[in-house]
Specification:
The complex is a heterodimer of chains A (413) and B (449). Chain A is built from 18 helices and 14 strands. Chain A has 413 residues and is of the alpha/beta class. Chain B has 2 domains: 52-204, no CATH class; 225-445, MetI-like (MetI-like fold, Orthogonal Bundle). Chain B is built from 18 helices and 10 strands. In chain B, helix 1 crosses helix 17 (413-433) and helix 7 (225-257) crosses helix 11 (320-332). The chains are: A alpha/beta (413), B alpha+beta (449). Chains A and B meet through helix 1, helix 2, strand 2, helix 7 and helix 11 of A and helix 3 and helix 16 of B.
Amino acid sequence: MKRFCLALVMVLLVTSAAAAQQIRIGGHGGNDTIIVEEMIELFVRPALEGTGITVQYEPVADDYQRFIVNALSAGTAPDLFYMDIFWAGSLIRSGAVEPLNDYLEKSTVLKAEDFIPSLVDAFTVDGQVYGIPKDFNTLALFYNKDLFDYAGVEYPSNDDTWDTLYEKLEKVASIDPDIYGLALQPEFARFGALAYAAGFTPFNAEGKTDLSDPAFVDAFKWYTGMAETGVGVMPADISQGWGGGALASEQVAAALEGAWIIGALKGDAPNLQYGATLMPKHPETGQRGNLIFTVAWGMNAASPNKDAAFRVLEILTSEEVQQWVLERGLAIPSREALADNPYFQQDHAEAHANHVVFLGASDGNVLPYSFGTYGGDWMQPIDQALAAVMSKQATVEEALQQAQAQLDALMGR
Amino acid sequence: MPDLQRRRWANAAAVYCFLLLLSILFMGPFLFAFLSSLKDNPTEWPPSLTVNQLRPANWAASYRLAKQGGGSGLWGGLAPGGSIDFEITYWTEEGREPAPPEVVIPKRVQGGAAAALSVEHWAADYVEVVGPYEISREPDQGGVLTTYSFTLVNKGDVPLKEVPMDLTVPMRQEFVSATLSPNRIERLGRTQSWNNVSSGLLPYVFSNYARVFRENYSVSTGKRLFLLWIRNSFFLAVTRVVTTLVFASMAGYALARLRFRGRNAVFGLLLFSMMIPQQVTFISNYLVLRDGVFGLSRLVGVPTLLNTYSGLIISGLVGASSVFIMKQFFERLPASLEESARIDGASTYTIFFRIFLPLAKPPLGALTILTFQGVWNEFFWPLVVITSPADKYPLTIGLLNLQRTYGAATFDWGPILAGTFISALPIIVLFIAFQQYFVEGISFSGNKE
């Protein structure tokens, strides 16, 4: 028995020593698997040569958020992992994510100041940085040049306000009853950018949401009004699932989407002649609004190899990796210095659109796509109100009243 | 008399019509999904039955084009120095001068940015377009039909797998027909676009199926993931079938035929474990695997059984219901069989292996099929146990991964549908081949596993 115990202890010691420098990285499955593994192969492995640190990517095929929350509480989570802005807040508050300030101070290559401030702010809680943004997206106005040419209307531009854009879209929509100006998803994830432009904030000084805010009502009426006049259409009404699908079908002249639309258009409508401009300005405030969608690398607070993990983090967010990601058209980098990258100056639609999305993060009223601890529950009443009004099941007043009541109930919990 | 006969015929007709209707109801969605899995745009609305991939003219053309390009007619390719002749016809109204199309070989690959990482040679860098030349012009219903021809030549020294092509003409010049039907028509009718003009017959007809295999590969090992997933599922299913047959028959025999103390208690426990819903034991099973079956696996140097096949196999060695099926079967065999063998001096093992096991072919067949089918379709437990890398996934988890790959921004349903069909195939084959065992299996256990 004694010998048996001894053997057991020996085995334990050997296995734990061997596993000491293995850094596990958790992220999305699918396309990300190929991209991150390629990234590790090209940059991380060579840089870690001789340090004894090995890196393994663990893609999650299933719902990622559920996986990471479960894994963190079960103690099986990877050392570094994707952290979406949409739910990062509650994860950080739970204490499962390692604050990075101490590491950043010691580091010679990774500085929080090198990244776009609004992105870093999104992952900063009480002065502590919890995530290094890996890439991001904002909304832009994507339009079909052919339809504008056909209608003889000038393309949308960065100078457009809501009013001038509306006029242009109206002219395009008048070509044919089956052609519409703008794809109107009944989602705060699109409409929110307009509400922010008008000066709306999700939570007022008392931490409550006020949908009777004139700024919100103004944006709501402009957005839903287009469905009523036929200048815009909900993608579902032309049997499409989202704005990108609607744009690809050539029945809609413009859509509010992020850079994710570029990859989708390449597959669905590779020859679509599209252009992109910044979101339209609000006619009175003169401001644009935007939402920031971003994913950061977070570190597991319970990781046994934090220093090694930070070393890997330094490489993953380095300028050369981000440059590679950008040039391959995989994502938009989070480093401020890459704003002047020659890639953005190239003369083709894809590079131009990526640049517009990149600029969207620092122009006007830009807020992260996250709603405190409420998450998606906060948006749901507004999404329903948008859908109800645009499908003519309720008036603006009725819909907003009902949404307000639902939000009050949610916040009163 | 003829009245009775007529009524009998009418009854038979009614029954047949009813059965026909039922089978259409059941098979209809299945066939429709299969049809959709061939289309370029599986979600087109309203759905049409004239699918490009099912037109014999396109079959012939895709075979001929690939053959002409120096590749295999079935599998496609454009060999170095190979060329492809292409013809296309447009209609223009009277008085408008038809213009030759602008031919472009774009740098494009199906499957997005990740798929583009795997492309070694772009056709755009090697293929030269000769033409287009106008070859005929004939009047047609108030307009003119003009046909152009051009040739694509591979000037490089590498064989090309994919040659995408786009043709663009001025507005109001309508596309009529081409050597091979285009995969999509864009820009208000101006642009005709092909994914691959040298695809060959099989990748043309089953393009979504080919994509599933081609676009899912592992960067670290370079292997095709979808093939690996199929192999993994087969491995798991076969292993579990073997362990189930061995343990279920032995345990069933012991419970049915051997007299030992605590037999009833064991049987009671067995029944009890069948009554507990899986969800209840789920977390404890997970913890047992995490700690390597109470630390036992550490003896062989494995700290945890999570993310290993051993974990999946050990946690599913045999199900209580399988033991139950075998026990019920062995109990029904006459006692005289065993007794006469004993008189001849046979040991318990001899009796089991030589007499009882050969008699148990029907329930073993049923168990094989039920277990295979169960493991092949198992989803939740493997999802929890097997996490990474993607090379290790069984097919069901692989399909979930497809949803991520092709559902990032917009759903690319083609490959997802195709993948689902491939995963259903073995079960369909199994079912057709072993129909009677399925029914027997259900009648043995009283309920399907």
